[in-house]
Design a protein that fits this description.
Layout lengths: L6 E6 L2 E6 L10 H12 L7 E6 L18 H19 L5 E5 L2 E3 L1 H7 L3 E5 L3 E3 L2 H4 L7 H9 L1 H10 L3 E2 H7 L4 E3 L4 H13 L3 H16 L2 H16 L2 H11 L13
Bound molecules: 3-methylmercaptopropionate-CoA (MMPA-CoA) (1HE).
């Protein structure tokens, strides 16, 4: 797969680790990078069971490359935002679980990118910001939907109106990340979580990644119907039956809270 210079990937035993590799510009996302992200997720390397995305250098991403914004009119602005939407939709509703390993700045479009993944692991150097308000622009990479869904409209409004930022400990309490780890440990943890998620049957992961977020936002009556259908389809699979049999025959591990990451 051909990727731009600002991206590279490496396979780790079924987990594709995608690196945003533009540290001199704090991994600011220009069009070529966003297109590369789109291509990568639309056509994952053979044998990919899960993906981890992270940033090279001291930051995950400083968001939109602001130098690309100067000459853009409204029509070009819509096209640009839709480019981001298409790329991030491929992450959110793709074939495999995607984990973001976060550190340093997770800002603007960087936070929108992180919000399109299924799991976020942050280390304690992380900080989250939405400086769009003070830059005189607005989120365009799906943040109004996905960031608002994670942290709530009130908190997002505060960040955009006042420039309020959040660190890692608050971030895990308020929904920015599901995990917080010591500095430098996010990537390793993200790979372990990606590997764990990839062990589930594909059909169940499809239900979790594609049905759950839609059901949660559907009207409750349609949502409950969708849930029944999805549940029936999942339990009908041979894989589900084999796993249930393994549990009943005491061949599968019990649920345990010991050693939980
Ligand atoms: C950039 C960008 C960028 C850094 N676009 N070039 N995002 C922002 O408003 C965040 C802007 N960036 C920052 O606030 C800081 O750079 C950081 C806090 C992320 C990092 O600070 P620091 O001290 O480590 O780096 P630096 O010295 O500020 O930046 C190093 C270089 O990266 C410098 O370029 P140089 O040529 O002078 O070396 C910076 O200009 C460059 N750089 N961030 C372009 N964002 C789909 S809509 C989404 C809308 C948004 O994302 S708005 C949020 C934009």
């Amino acid at each position: 797969m051909t990727l731009p210079d600002t991206l590279r990937y490496a396979m780790h035993d079924g987990v594709a680790v995608l690196t945003i590799a533009r540290p001199d510009k704090r991994n600011a996302l220009n069009d070529v990078t966003v297109r590369g992200i789109h291509r990568f997720f639309a056509d994952l390397p053979d044998g990919t069971n899960a993906v981890v995305i992270h940033g090279e250098g001291d930051h995950f991403s400083a968001g939109l490359d602001l130098s690309t914004l100067m000459e853009r009119d409204a029509e070009a602005g819509i096209a640009h935002s839709r480019l981001w939407h298409r790329a991030f939709e491929c992450i959110e509703f793709g074939d495999v679980p995607v984990v973001a390993a976060l550190h340093g700045a997770v800002v603007g479009g960087g936070l929108e990118l992180a919000a399109s993944t299924h799991l976020r692991v942050a280390d304690k150097t992380v900080f989250y910001a939405l400086p769009e308000g003070s830059r005189g622009i607005y989120v365009g990479g799906g943040g109004s939907v996905r960031v608002a869904r994670l942290i709530g409209v009130a908190r997002m409004m505060d960040m955009m109106l006042t420039g309020r930022t959040y660190g890692g400990e608050e971030g895990v309490l308020f929904g920015f990340s599901q995990y917080i780890v010591e500095p430098g440990e996010a990537l390793e943890k993200a790979i372990a979580l990606a590997r764990r998620a990839a062990e589930n049957p594909k059909l169940t992961n499809f239900a979790i990644m594609h049905a759950l977020p839609r059901i949660a936002e559907a009207d409750p009556s349609a949502g409950l119907l969708m849930e029944s259908l999805m549940s029936a389809i999942a339990q009908d699979s041979d894989e589900a039956k084999a796993r249930l049999r393994a549990f009943l025959e005491k061949r599968a591990p019990k649920v345990s809270h010991k050693g939980v990451p």
